[in-house]
Amino acid sequence: MSTAYVLINSDLGKDIDIISKIKEIRQAEKDISFEIQCVYGVYDIIVKISSDESATVCKIVTNQIRKIENVQSTLTMVVIEEQE
């Protein structure tokens, strides 16, 4: 299972619009788990994405989430699946 946390900076007051767009992505994608939270601090939204395929997670972040209108920037942290 591949998991990534995506920290999102949004334009002021646009976090609800961005969350709505992410929920649309979640509904369109099969076999992917999304958790979405608004937060206080440096970032405005945190999204946890999990899938059996790491390429799918990367594709969603790069081709969909980062292209949502009013997303200023993102920071993606991919979870280390195994540590030796």
Task: Describe it.
The protein has helices spanning 15-28, 54-63; strands spanning 2-10, 32-38, 45-51, 71-78. The relative contact order is 0.33. By secondary structure, it is an alpha+beta fold. The chain is globular, with a radius of gyration of 12 Å. It has two helices and four strands. A hairpin with a 6-residue loop joins strand 2 and strand 3 (45-51).
Q: Mean pLDDT score, rounded?
A: 92
Backbone structural class = alpha+beta
Low-confidence stretches: none
Q: What is Rg?
A: 12 Å
Biggest beta sheet summary: 4 strands, antiparallel
Total helix count? 2
What would you call the quaternary organization? single chain
Overall helicity: 25-40%
The strand line-up of the biggest sheet is 2-3-1-4
Secondary structure: number of strands: 4
| Shape summary | globular
Task: Write the topology of this structure.
Layout: E1 2-10, H1 15-28, E2 32-38, E3 45-51, H2 54-63, E4 71-78
Antiparallel strand pairs: 1-3, 1-4, 2-3
Short description:
The protein has 84 residues and is α+β, with helices and mostly antiparallel strands.
Defining traits:
2 helices, 84 residues, 4-stranded antiparallel beta sheet, single chain
